[in-house]
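Appendix B, example 12.
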Amino acid sequence: MNAAVDSAAGRIAWGRWLVLSLVVLILDQLTKFEVTSALVLYQRIPVLPFFDIVRLHNTGAAFSFLADASGWQNTLFMVVAVVVVIGVLWWLAQLPRRGKALLALGLALLIGGAIGNLVDRVLYGHVVDFLLFYYGEWAFPAFNVADSAITCGVGLVLFDGMVLEPRAARQADGSS
């Protein structure tokens, strides 16, 4: 019994990170609600010479991948989101208490973003995108708060795995 208690005490207080996931989810859903309440589909509001708020509905994945499919893709993306959230929750719960804050931050952002877009797919059959950056005729595909959280989360997870982990391994080996 003491081993189980010690093991649980040695793991990260992952519930705290889930609060951040919840904040991302709430911010994502609130901003999407505001956009859908204020704008009709395809309406754009110029904000800066390179940035507009726009209301778009994306039935695909990132960069509208599979958006033109017949509808099956929505179910696929919902299943993928659920599997990813479960996997990332498990990963987060397994982290040690110390030394993994950046990785935990990345995982929490991933969870909040994935659930934010999952809510859209379940409720509407599409994801609401509204942030549009452009220059002249070129435009980056529109995105939302959840997409931003997912992108930042993936970046932090990659940074941890490609920079921090190798550095920690070298330090543990006594080399520089």
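The chain has one domain: 17-173. Residues 40 and 83 are 33 Å apart (CA to CA).
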